[in-house]
Amino acid sequence: MRGANLTLGTAGLAAFLALGEAVPRLGLVKEAYFPPTSRIVGALGDELADSAFWTALGDTLTGWALGLAIAVGAGIVAGVLISVVPHLREATASTIEFLRPIPSVALIPLAVLLYGTELRSVLLLVVYASFWQILIQVLYGVQDVDPVAEETARSYGLGTWARVRHLLWPTALPYVMTGVRLAAAVALILVITAELVIGAPGLGARIAVAQTSQAVPEMYALIVVTGVLGLLINVGARTVERRALAWHQSVRGEVAV
């Protein structure tokens, strides 16, 4: 089954690349705006040979990793505290629902005002966007705890920490891993967006420079790199999710299939 999926995926990618080569060659679009795949691949090779590209890639990955780590830690801690402290969830519900829909890009003027084009501007946007993905999933996960198990834990005299460790956390973990996977993708989007708009060092800033200098093949090559990064991050997040939830029924069923 996996072999068939790999074959189909490879065939689909090959067809897409062939289409990207044919469309500008046939004059359906201007090569100045959409160069053929071969030119993009050549530009990608030039980028890979440039040390500045690797520096930009490192800057992007640094902002992504730091922002995601901060968001995951803060989201888990805040979600658990809101869930276990009496009446805190009710007291914070309206605030969460007010702040959560605010687009992170709306905070770009604030980030620039506070930190300019420094890494902290990128982190502000990434953490804000990714934090809600984790927090909401933790709240949903804790809400899914079996009431009978909760009452049993209380009747046996388990303290708050023991209930969090042995009851709340195992129940919430599948939700947390889903939140991490979503937050990882959101974090990459915000890193690239921040670099494009703010001009912080990274792939986004390099894309903006290529666009303003009319280096179209290089611009598309860098966009391809961001797409590959997103794919690798998604695959990595799913791999971590499967390993962390190897005991869970959903993962056991997926492996069995």
Share in β-strands:
under 5%
Helix content: over 70%
Q: What is the 3D shape?
A: elongated
Task: Identify low-pLDDT runs.
Answer: none
Number of helices: 11
Distance between the termini: 9 Å
Largest sheet: none
Describe this structure in words.
- The chain is mostly helical.
- Helices cover about 80% and strands about 0% of the residues.
- Helix 3 (about 50-85) packs across helix 9 (about 205-210).
- It is elongated, with a radius of gyration of 22 Å.
- The model has no long low-confidence stretch (mean pLDDT about 85).
Lay out the secondary structure.
Layout: H1 2-25, H2 37-48, H3 51-84, H4 88-99, H5 108-115, H6 119-143, H7 147-155, H8 160-198, H9 203-212, H10 216-244, H11 249-256
Helix pairs in contact: 2-10, 3-6, 3-8, 3-9, 5-6, 6-8, 8-9, 8-10, 9-10
Please name the defining characteristics of this protein.
11 helices, mainly alpha, 257 residues, single chain
